[in-house]
Amino acid sequence: MPVSVTFELLGDIQAHVAGEPIDLGHARQRSVLAALLVEPNRSLPLDLLIERVWGDRAPRQARNTLYGYLYRLRQAFAGVAGVRIDRTPGGYLLPVDEHAVDLHRFRLVVKRAQAEPDEQALDSLERALALWRGQALGGADGPWAQSVRRALDQERWTALLQRNDIALRLGRHTALLAELSALADENPLDERLAGQLILALYQCGRQGDALTHYQSVRRRLAEELGADPGPGLRELHQRVLAGELTAPATARIGTPTPRQLPAAPRLFVGRTDELARIDKVLASGHAPPPVLAVVGSGGTGKTALVLHWAHRAVDRFPDGQLHADLRGFDPAGPPVSPAAVVRGFLDALGVPADSAPADQDGQVALYRSLLAGKRLLVVLDNARDTDQVLPLLPGSPTCTVLVTSRQRLTGLAATHGVPTLALDVLTDAEARDLLVGHLGEQRVRGEPGAVAHLLRWCAGLPLAVGIVAARAAVYPDFPLSALVEELSEDSGLDALDTGELSTSLRAVFAASYRALPPEAAEAFALLGVAPGPDIGVPAAAALLGVPVPRLRGLVRHLETGHLVRQHVPGRYRMHDLVRVYAVERARADHADSAEAGLRRVIDFYVRFGRAAERVLYPYETPPAVGEPAGAVPDLPDDTAALAWLTAEYAGVLAAQQAAARRGWHPPVWQLAWALDTFQRRQGHLQQDQLAAWRAGLAAAERAGDAAACALAAWRLGAALARVGDLGGAADHLDLALAQSRASGDASGQANAHQSLAWVCEQRGEDTRALHHATSALEILRGLGVPMREAHALNQAGWYAARLNDLDRAARYCEAALELARRHGDRDAEARTLDSLGYLAHRAGRHDHAVERYEQALVGFVEVGATYDYVDTLQRLGDSHAAAGRGEQARAAWRTALSLLDEQHRTADAEQLRAKLARRR
């Protein structure tokens, strides 16, 4: 059947339905669509989409902005059969027939042409090249788009050259000559293209012009690159001179051709972007010699990546491949000296030992002379440092060098401009594919729970996956759950100890640890006990008890050895298995300093967290929370506070858990309060909020602190209400109200009343809800805090509207909106606009309701209130539906459903799913 929907990426990003263009919005919104289409039918995590759209310049509210783009793209394709953007557990997915996307049609046709006879292949390649309408991903910007564009340009160029070769074989030289001449003018240093033009000229009877073009290319190479033409072009020149091009090229004899590459890895998965980067950096025809260093921690698969690429690109190096394992971090012995490597290379190049210079400098000079002008690959594996690599670099731009190392080799980059490719761990899907390669799909598919446990254990490290698979392969008839049980009984890295130094993870990490200076080794151990999956520079400085400049110097040692990684500017993290080793070192070598460091970093999170919460909710700081001691952080506005909480969220949660485990009571409820407003706005964090306040209440009870107990009971009750446990919520809120009355805490009483009002609403008791809301309003009017009064007015207006007392509701809500705007509180303003939208909907003024709801949505995006955003989005759909705009209603509900699933609001999602089903 013909595809009714087509997507175009080989030019400006476009989509057509039955030939009619679809409005895809602005450039960044089109970039989201491109990111979903470049890798077809793959679920892309939200963070990856953000990286592809903005690179390292994502706005503070990137997630909410991206939700908006996805919502508008869904609307653009609303009603188009077969086109939908799905939310999956792994991210966002656009299911698509690859034939509907010009990029994938291009690739499919080019691949098919490789197996076709020349006549058919030529037609296929012409059709593939005709799909290009200009620059790929036209209009998209940023590092990802530029990287994809470069890779696609190379694919197009390769297909074009392949087309030329076939056309010349078929005698189409006359028709091709003009195009070849134009291409050669644009790409004067491409020797393959030059050879094609020379051959076409010769076959057209223009032998003199063919020879002239060869001399022109030779001069250009000499002037711009200091190089001679390669052996293929030189041979073609000789055959043109001889007037005979039908005989096969004469094989060169004399110097042996080294073929030292070790076998390619039997199993290799993923690494698509990394392979494309190697292709780009090592493209031929550039001076100085193309060199790339692949760096990363032990076990990430650097050698496997390099060998996979080298075997795939072996045809680029007709003069051979040299390989040396430099053993830079070999636990069994010292690194190999450059002199020994050069001597081995000379042997491979056919230099007798007795004819080589005796000194290292002379041998290096001879080595470089032998490589001059050759298309040869040099692989230098497992380098210790820059000094070990420098003598082994060829001087000829025709040679290519790949280096692997656990060190960052910054000296190589600084002195020779050598780019580096930092290799990270595998994705979850890639790690599973690797395990399948070892054990087979049937065995892996049969035990998904055990496999998930094993993959979590390996944390994406290819070496760890290989070790686990090897243990499983010993007993092919045993269930994988038995291996999980066995691994669980082992301690730390003992589970991944093979008994062989080269494949023992502890030995791999120890070799890097032993290379550290003493202070850096202690910093490594302390960073292992840091709470959270990563840590920012200020928190890390607090943990280590050093100023920030000193912290950066210490961490630089760890980055150089790939023991920590600065995955975003100013934030560091360790691979999970490296961290296990760091904790071992902390317990064995630095126990006292690790405990002191943990106290310091928890205090840091308390101070900063309280300051952030005070910015987000400046109207109340309960006495149990206390005032920050020491330097007060500079968080000038909501944006800064949200940015800090977003970055440090996991660390603050982990710090609270660490304090609870150690019986350090006040930080437990103080950190729960620090996260409270942030968690409320980010609706997907409900379970975290419950856990935080349960821990806070338990700590308050153990400490015997009545004020802290009342605070924790109130916030825990409110959190329970949000997840639907209305009975538990009421119990805790009644307790909080009673404790606040007993202590004379009017503010606490108002808080409990407001939360109880919400519980009553969920129970369908709107009259009682209004009673609690107006009780809170009466109390707060006497406290002189205008914005707390505004919140109470809005709440009372909402319940009055639910009881159809619309005039009273309007008075309350308009007063709340005036206060919110007067005090510049965008969160309160958005909430009140939502209430006014609900009022208009109840009054039958649906267009006015839509206007208010859309204003509220803008506000919720600005303040990062994703929980409230999705509720308002549902109500926006209701108003569209009531106004007879069914498709707009369904689009709003579908987006809301995706967000509800993401927030794990199961009951709400099921209700909305049922509503959508009824409206089809």
Automatic annotation (TrEMBL):
Residues 1-96 form the OmpR/PhoB-type domain. InterPro entries: AfsR-DnrI-RedD_regulator, BTAD, OmpR/PhoB-type_DNA-bd, P-loop_NTPase, Sig_transdc_resp-reg_C-effctor, TPR-like_helical_dom_sf, TPR_rpt, WH-like_DNA-bd_sf. Residues 1-96 bind DNA. One of its GO terms (biological process) is phosphorelay signal transduction system. Keywords: DNA-binding, Transcription, Transcription regulation. GO terms for molecular function: ADP binding; DNA binding. Signal peptide: none annotated. It comes from the Bacteria. Belongs to the AfsR/DnrI/RedD regulatory family. This is DNA-binding transcriptional activator of the SARP family. It comes from Goodfellowiella coeruleoviolacea.
